[in-house]
Amino acid sequence: METLKGKHIYLRALEPEDLSFLSSIENDENLWELSHTQTPYSQYILKQYLANSYQDIFEAKQLRLIISNYENKPLGMIDLFDFDFKNSRAGVGILVHQHEDRQQGYGKEALQLLIKYSFTHLNLHQLYCNISEDNDASLKLFTNQGFEKVGLKKDWVYKNKTYKNEYLLQLINS
């Protein structure tokens, strides 16, 4: 699908070959705060998840795509979650996994592709995201793509014996 192809990356469906990549992300404790995860995932559970990833967004209420370069190296993932057909909205989450792949424009290009796909193919009215107040890189990424801060959730995330605030951002399709 041309909509999901950019200049440097493309977005693709999950494949069985993504098991080790998915496992490395889902079991990285440093990333658990982003996904509100508390425990590791077994290979068995992740295999089941991959086996069921064929469900479309209307059934699963979620769409997870791999961010891949044109050498077919997976760089990260981008998600639509809490897909709400009635209210025509979905949440967005994005992760570029390796530090050396960050700040290279991959996240920006992936987000641009997903926004376009969401508004043209899924006919969504709005996208939203939740970003920790201290996550400057993600705040910059989303605000540069037109997302607006619409609220601050006080003491929303508990990590390392302290509470953190989290912003709610929205992008409304005009």
pLDDT average, as an integer? Answer: 85
Q: Total number of β-strand segments?
A: 7
**Overall geometry:** globular
Helix content: 25-40%
| CATH fold topology | Aminopeptidase
Question: Can you identify the CATH class?
Answer: Alpha Beta
Secondary-structure-based class equals: alpha+beta
Pfam family, one: Acetyltransf_3
Organism: Gelidibacter gilvus
Keywords: Transferase
GO molecular function: acyltransferase activity, transferring groups other than amino-acyl groups
Which tags fit this structure?
Aminopeptidase, 174 residues, 7-stranded mixed sheet, alpha+beta, 7 strands
Describe this protein's structure.
With 174 residues, the protein is an alpha+beta fold. It has one domain: Aminopeptidase (3-Layer(aba) Sandwich), CATH 3.40.630.30. It has helices spanning 19-26, 32-35, 43-51, 57-60, 106-120, 136-144; strands at 9-13, 63-69, 74-84, 89-96, 126-132, 148-159, 162-172. The chain has a seven-stranded mixed sheet with strand order 1-2-3-4-5-7-6. Strand 3 and strand 4 form a beta hairpin. It is globular, with a radius of gyration of 16 Å. 23% of the residues are buried. The mean pLDDT is 85.
In summary, what is this structure?
With 174 residues, the chain is an alpha+beta fold. The chain is built from six helices and seven strands; from the N terminus they run βααααβββαβαββ.
